[in-house]
Amino acid sequence: MEMSRYIFWCLPLVLLACGEEKIDRPLKATVPDVLVVEGVLTNKKANHLIKLSRPSQELNGEGPPVSGAVVSIMEGNGKTYLATEAPAMPGHYFTESMTAVFGKPYTLSIQYNGKEYFAMAASVPVEPMGGLQYEKAGDGLYQLQFEESGSSPNYVDYHVSWANTPGCLPGSLCEGRLVYYDLKTVDVNSLFKPDKEDFLFPVGAVVVRTKYSVSPEYKTFLRSVLSETEWRGGLFDVPRENVPTNLSEGAIGFFAVSTVLSDTTVIVEKP
Q1: For residues 38 and 254, is the Cβ–Cβ distance under 8 A?
Q2: Which of 2, 158, 176, 269 is least surrounded by Cβ atoms within 10 Å, i.e. has the fewest?
Q3: Which domains does the chain have, with CATH numbers?
C-alpha cells in the first residue's frame, strides 16, 4: 500500500520534469478515402433514403455528398429496387416505393467510381409502446418523459410540432425532433452522459412517435456511435475507436432494416 501511494505522488513530479518542445508546424487532418453510407429500410411503404457521402473533417459535420452512384436493393433472392438520386439533394438516393418485409434479407449494392460496395441486413420484430408520457415544466409548457420500452433493443423518434397553436410565435420554428435510444445495455458513460437543454412545448402540440426495432448488429453500431457522440463528454468517457460497419471494404456507416410502429398524440393540459 505504501509503495502504491509513493508511485501516485511521484508521478506528477516526473511529468513536470519532462521538457516541452514547441511545434509550429500546422497539423494536417487526413481524410480517409472511404464511402460513408447511411440507410434504414422499414416495413412502412415509402421511398426509403440511402445517403452517400465522404467523411467530414469536422466533428459532427456533414461530409461532401457523393453523386453519380448506381444504388439498388435486392429483396431476398428476388425483386430488385432501384434508388434514384434526388436532383435537388446531392448524395440522397431514394428507392422506388417499397416495404421491407420481416423475415427477408435485403442486400444493398452501390457502384461508384468503378468500385462495388455491398451490405446485407434483415429486421427483427418491434414490441408495442405504452402511452406517451409527458409532464408540466412551468409557464404552461410541457416536456417529454422517456421510459424504457419492452425487453428488446429499440429507439424511438419523436417529432413534435406546435405550428398550429397560439404558442407558435410568428417567424419561429415551432417544431423539433428527439430520439431516445433504449439499447438494453449497461454503459457507464450513458448513465453519466452530458446534460442537454430541456425541450419544451405548449398545449396543443402534436407528437408523432415512431419506434424502431434494432437487430444485434445494428445495436453494436448504434452503441459505438453514441459512445463517440451523444455519450461523450460525460464523467466516464471510453477511449475512441473505429465504429463497426456491415459494409464491404472501402465503405463505412451502416445499412439497417427495422420494423417500426407509430402513433400520434395531442398534448392536453394536465392539472
Answers
A1: yes
A2: 2
A3: 35-121 (2.60.40), 134-243+258-266 (no CATH)
Half-sphere exposure of 229 (CA within 13 A, CB side): 13
Output the pTM of the full model.
Answer: 0.81
Are the beta carbons of 213 and 125 closer than 8 angstroms? Answer: yes
The answer to whether the CB of 119 falls within 8 A of the CB of 108 is yes
Q: How many residues does the chain have?
A: 271
Cβ–Cβ < 8 Å for 117, 123: no
Question: Is 175 in contact with 167 (CB distance < 8 Å)?
Answer: no
Write out the DSSP string of 136-174.
EEETTEEEE-----SSS-EEEEEEEE-TTSTT--TT---
The side-by-side arrangement of strands in the sheet containing 141-144 is 134-138, 141-144, 201-202
pLDDT digits (tens, 9 = 90+) for 220-266: 999 988 877 665 443 333 334 568 999 999 999 999 999 999 999 99
For residue 257, give the nearest of 112, 59, 98, 131 by alpha carbon: 98
